[in-house]
Every structure is written in structure tokens, then in C-alpha cells.
Amino acid sequence: MEAKDHDIPTFVQRSARGQRRVTSQDSAQANAPDTAMSQSLRLRSVFLCIALTALTFYASYTSSSSASSQPKHKIQNASSAAQEILRQCASRHVAPGPAPGFRDRETSDRFENGTRPTLIKNATLWTGARNGTEVVYGDIFFDKGLIRGIGDIPEVLYANKDIYVVDAHGGWVTPGLVDLHSHLGLMSAPITAGALDYSSSHGPILPWLRTIDGFNTHDAALRIAVAGGVTSAQIVPGSEIVIGGQAFILKLRKTSQRTPTSMLVDPPFTLNDSAPDPNLPFRWRYLWQSCGESVRGYGNRMDTVWALRSAYAEARTVRDAQDAFCSKAESGLWDEIAGQSYPEDLRWEALVGVLRGKVKVSMQCSEAVDLDAMVRLSQEFRFPIATVQHAHEAYLVPDMLKLTYGDAPTIALSADNARSKRETYRGSEFASRILVDHGFSVALKSGHPESNSRYLLFEAQQAHYYGLPPHLALASVTSVPAAAVGLLHRLGVLREGADADVVLWDSHPLQLGATPRKVWIDGILQVGNDTDHVLIGPGKTGSAWRQPPQVPDFDAERQAAFAHEGLPPLGSKKLVAGRVAFRNVREVFLRESGETVGNASHFGMEDGDDAGVTHVIVDRGRVSCVGPACEGEGRNADAVIDLHGGAIVPGMMAFGSALGIEGIESEPSTGDGNQFDPLIQDVRRIVGDVGGLMKVEDALLFGTRNALLAHRAGVTYATTSFVKSPLFLRGKLIGGLSTTFRTGAPHALERTAIIKPVTALHVSIGRVPPSSFVPHAPSLSMQIATLRHLLLDGEDPRTPTGEWFKKAAEGTVPFVIDVSSADIMASLIRLKNEVEEKRGTYMRMVFSRATEAHLLAEEIGIILTPSRQYPWSWDDRRTLGGPPLTNSTALATLMKHGVTVGLGSWEVEHVRATRFDVGLAILESNNWINKRQAYELVSSNLEKLLDLEGWIGDYGDLVAYEGGSALDFTSKPVAIASPARELVEIL
């Protein structure tokens, strides 16, 4: 890939079928498999001659030496054994690749009878050709699981056929998305102990394990992933093992056989038979390796590299024994190997395949020290690395990675999954752009379920936002991952002869909220059946939706990230205590107040056309004038900022993550440390409180990178408790007393740093999923019984537990319960009624997480955390997916029932993307939610639910965004107006 040549997309107007192939793509992509096939054919011819010569010699030798003592059938048996030996020896050199004539096949090996041919008319086709720059306006026809024509389709292709016709009305069509890193089927949703098969505990080196042996076809996430346009995925084992086992490429379509094997793409011949067809080239196999912090359970980094070297040394011994044995067999020295068989060891055969170039290796490594070790390993044992996954520091050491044996690896990244570990602390959102500038192929991946595979495209969208050119962003989830696994001849591209994995989108795929209207896998419709009547894409009719978003310029930030090795300064450029004039403001939403400023009140001014472009004057952090008439007042301003059609909106609030109590999420030494759960272990007597109720205020950390990045992204406040993300860490009943603070404050003693020292009392109720690794989780009934005891004065009010549960029962402090199941919520509502009746009080109960709250839609406060719901556990299983799965979302359903709703986030590294989550919420509601309501979800609604209105209110921050709306990819924050601090901070 010529990554520095960020080509301007090529548009081909309805090219004729026979004339379309005039692009360089045909030599770079189409002919590459043919070259491999021709080399394979030549090799087979050579070894066939060798085999025939050796067989003739061996038959003659055997016949002459034993004719007097051996019957004839013994000679035939010896010849058969020799033939098998020579076949095994010859197979050492056969390269993997597509079978001869693969491009000319008439029917896909995955075709299912009864599937109707499909013609998509009037489409904008992103083909994947020309390094991702080719766009064809025309039609696409697929039949028998294969793409049969692109562009102007000759009617003879589909004449007299019962075809399914779809009019795309100019909509974008792409290949199905390919996810290089997924645990689909191994960590099946909802997660249960019986289907948790992503990792083994039987040692650091397990190349003989195979993910296909644990793949669960009933995983609810399969359908969810396809709803995001993902049609293929590399199913990998867990990263806790140095060599975790063999990965497999699967199509995510459930087949009529309903088996994992039938979902495989190009299953290796050795899967069920140790003797591959000698008339066909090998099919690629895949191996998964890990290093760094993930494999600490088996030792330190030196242990990891030694384990790898020892394993490959064993494999090299087996390989050399095979070569020595075959050298004698192919030379006809049969007496020297008499009584011996072909040297094999099932434990090491996958690694032998790596050394012979038949198995593609993916390595999950992040830090420079680990990446360097893997490069040395590849050089020592002379094998290429297909992909380096996670690779958070790869952008800092591109020249070193180019020293990998063979070709440079593809780098597979997540867009915003950094800083959760020490080894990922220097990860950068600009990594993908920096790497392609250094000539690397970059793929974006999900790491499902760490990030829901449904939103794989969102990874590419964010990479584009931070500088990856649009054609490479689309390639990063289609052609690049397909090429990385050696399947570009059938996946990740739209061209004749490729598999019919096709997605029709409701907008340009890089637009926030781009949703599949229809998804086909192997030509079989998976999403968008006309009888489903799911409404998709209303409000996306404007021409802007048909183009990639015009993203901001991040050149300076990208250069700073590289220059400072991932830790650029995050301070403000300037603090202005006087007057600041904002020009060319397209959209203004002021915080709710009792007065009108200029012509904008409350959240009152919607975005408009050019006539709505206006001026905003800010004096000592407070808006004093809004409207065209304010232009004169800006002439004497201390600073003038042109927003170029941008927006001024309320600062957003983070809720649900560990923001402010951990410097690095998985590094205990950077946070508060482990806390006691009173239902599992006794709290230390010296605390003097049986519930061990703690205050976040006492553990707050200021100036963490996650907090400062959130601040610079427009998330100026955070409310944080000790309740942890439930996937791996859940189990603590009492989540302590949360604190609301300012994310950009330098320290706790700064005047406006802590907004409200005690915001709410938090608890966590639910069944603990097996992935949480909580050894002795209390029963659900015990948890609720404990709450009843505490809320009805069960503990001495002179203790913190007794005092604050009494206040929660009286309604003087919000009582926030992290809960998912609608059934448990119903029990808690009944408990609330019981407490209120017995005490004569009114509780301010709020449900956070609240995955199944839409099933109740009771008028009780809800904070959806995270905003994009997923059936993680049994308690979360009844999600409402939104388009294209359902017409409504949980958020829209709750709001339609008059419920006050806020949005939160689990992951500290994702907090900075809060505004994109809000924009996505609008689009997934089919624009039923308006912008005013959207901003309320992460500002005033949270303030109401957490009783913060009098603490923030009119003194809340406003954030200025340059270039467009705050809720899409066109803008970036440039300033924060802070009435409480009486200044404007220029970022």
C-alpha cells in the first residue's frame, strides 16, 4: 500500500462490464492470486516428477531385492507407503493460496440452494480497488453466492431469472466488513459459565488449541454484529496465553447446517483430515500469540520471550527432522529410513506450519519493548508476522517494525482503546494516520466483546476523524484485513468472482451513525428484509450525507503526539479573564436559566442556515450577548475566535467510569486500590463501619491524562463512584459516595475543582457474570435483603453506612443503583414503595446501567450506562438494538414515556467520545430525539437526577466547537467558557 499517496477517489461512471478493468487494482489484487497459483503449479510439477522418479526407483529396488522372498502384494504395499511419504514431503513446499481457476468458479462453496439472485440498481459502489479510491456508479449483480457483475450489468446475466431487485437510489454499497480480532462465539452473549471458552488455563504455550472447537453458534452477538455490517471475523483465543492457539475465519451467517464448521471460510484440509488434496494448494491457517502485560500470569517479559523461543525451537527440530527424512526419501535412500515414518508431532505441527510459511501469525503486543522482541523472534526463526494487534506504540517505532522477517506486518488497532494499561498508556488516536504515512497497512478491529463488534465501522470513522484518509479508513475494515489473512481473493472487495458479502448503507459509511439498510452474506439477505418494516435512515436525504464528513485538521496535534512519544502536553494555550468574541457561530445552546440572553434562551437556538450565523460575546466566562447585533461589542474584545460555522453548547458530564480515581485503570498502584465488599469479607474493625462506606472525594486524582483529555473533548464535569464496570470487575455491593468534580482542575484545592463533595449514594445489585471472576458472589436475594435492612435503619446512624442509607431512605441524597434486569428493577421499585410507606418519606431512586429499563418504562430516573446497550450478561439479555434490528431504542422508548434519562460510559478512555455517543443516539432514534434533548442527556438531565442543579446550573461551563456541530465529526473543541472560574480557556 502506498500510504503516503492519499489518492483522490476515482469515480467511474457506469463503466461497461467488459471495460471496467483498466485500473491498477487488477494487477495488484486480482493477478496476485494468479501469480501464487502459477508458482504453486510449477512447484507441484517439480515434485510430481521427483515423486515419479523416486517411486520408479523404489519399486525397482524393492522388487529386485525381495522378489525371491516377498510376495507381490507386499511390493505393492511398500510402493503405496512410499507414495504417501513422498506426498508428505512434497507438501512441505506447497504455498497456500486459492485453487487454480478460483476466479472462474460459477458457484460459491458456501452457496445454499434456493437463494435468489440479487440485483442492486443505482448504487454508489466502493469496490476496494485502487488502494480504496475506486468508486463505481452503477449496479451490482450477485448469484450463487458470487458477485457476477459490477457497473453496467448486461441483461443476459439475469434474464429469465427470478431475481430480487433493490433500488439503492444512489446509496453507498461496500463489501461486508471484516473484523481481525473478535471473540465472537467464545465469549457468547449473554455470558454464561457454560459458554465461556475464549481462554485456557493449561499453560503459556498452547498452539494445539483451536477456537473452532469452542465456537458457540447461539451467541446472540452474531446477529448484532451483522446488523453493523460485519460479515466475517477472525475468531481468536484469549490474550492471557503466550501462544493461545489457532484462530479461524468465519462468516457470521448461521447456515442451514447450524454448525461452526459450516461457517468457516476456506477451512484448512487438516481440520478433519491429515492428508490434504494433493491437487489443491494449501489453505491458510492462523495462529494467535500474545505478549506484554496480558500474559503476566505465566511470568514476566523475559519468561514470555523464552517460552516463545523454546516453542519455536521445538518446532524447528521437528521441521529439520522432516527435511532430513525427506531428503533421503527424495534421493531414493530408502534403506536409510527403513521402518521410519514421516516425523510429526501434533503438539508442534502448527508452529512447523509457521516456519514453513503456511500459518499466518497474529501477535497481540502493545509496547515498544514487546514489539522489538517479536521482531527479533521473527528474525531468529525466520517467519513473517501477518498482523500485530493492539500495537499501541507501533506508531512510535515504525522503522523497527519494518525489520520484521519478510514483509512488514499489517497493524490492527482500535481507535480509542488506550491508557487502560501501562503498556497502552502512550497509545494515540493519531496512530493509524502516522503508520500509513510510514507505509504500513492499517486495519481497525473491535476486540469484541471489549468493543461491540457491531460498531467496528465506528472505529474506522474515528480513525478518519483523527486524520486517516477516507479511502484508507474504509479499506481498514474491508480489504486490508482481508489481505492480512490471505483472503483478498474472496473477501473485503467488490469484484467479479468474489464472495457476495455486500452491505447497502443509509449514508456514506464514514458518517456518524451510518446504518446498514441491507446486509448479504454469501448472497443471502441477513438484514433488511422488507417484511421487517424497520425504518432506517430518515433525515439523511441531504447531499452531505452522501459524502465523507469534512473532518478537522489535527496536523499539529498529530505531530505533538509523535514528538512527545504519546504524552503531549494537555494544558491550555491561554486563559482570558476579560472579553472574548466568538464569530461565525452556527449553533448556540445556552444552559437553562430564567432570563434571555440576546435571542437565545435556555437551550433555545437550533442550528440554521447561513442567515443563522451569529456572534456570541463572553465576559469573564459568562455569555453577555448573542446575535448579529453583538458584532460591535466584539471590536474591543481581548480575544476573537472564528468558529467557522461551529457551535457553543453546554459542557458535558461523565458518569459511570472510574474517571478521577485511577491514573491507569488496570494499574492498582495508580488508583485507590482494592475495597472490601461487606457481603464477601469483613471490613476492618478500625474503620468502625460494617458497610465500609467510602467517599470518592477522599481518593480523587486530578490531572490524570484521561481526565484532561475528557476536558479537552468538551466533557468538563464528572460524577464518579466506586462502582466498577460489570464485565470483569463487578461484585461489590456498596459503591460508596460519589463526587462531582471539574475534569480540567489542577488539584483538589483549586476553588472550583470539586463541585459537590457528596453527590449520591451508590450500590450495585445483580447476578454476577462468570467473567467477573468473583469467587464467592452473594445471592441476589441476599443483596436485596441487605438493602432492605440498611434502608430501614438496620445500622447505627452514627456510622457512615447507617447515616447515608438513612439519608437515601429520606430522599435527602440520590440513591443510585447499578442494575440491569427489569425483574430486579421491579423488585427494587417494590422495595422503594415499602421503605417509603414505612418511613413516610420519598426516595430519590435512580437506576444506572439499566439495560432492560425500557421493559418497565416506569417514571424513575434512568442513566443508561453505557449508552450503546449490549447483552453482556443474563441480566442484560433483553436489549433493544435500534435500527436495523428494531424501530426504537431503549433511550427513545424511555423518553417517549416521559422518563428523565441521562447517558453514561463505563470506560475512562471512551469518555472523550461522549459527544459522538450523543450524536449517535439521535440518529439511532431515527431523529425522534432533537438536539436540545440530546445535550440534556449529558448535562441538565444528569444534573436533575443527581441533584446538581443548584451546584452547576447557570455557572456551568460552555464549550465552543470549531467547524460544525458538536455532535458529529466536523468539529473539534477550541475553547471553554467557565462562569464559575470567570474566564475563557483557549485550548
Automatic annotation (TrEMBL):
Residues 102-113 have a biased composition (Basic and acidic residues). GO terms for biological process: N-acetylglucosamine catabolic process. Pfam families: Amidohydro_3. Residues 21-35 have a biased composition (Polar residues). Residues 470-523 form the Amidohydrolase domain. Residues 1-35, 93-114 are annotated as: Disordered. Keywords: Hydrolase. InterPro entries: Amidohydro_3 (IPR013108), Metal-dep_hydrolase_composite (IPR011059), Metal_Hydrolase (IPR032466). One of its GO terms (molecular function) is N-acetylglucosamine-6-phosphate deacetylase activity. This is Composite domain of metallo-dependent hydrolase. It comes from Trametes coccinea (strain BRFM310).
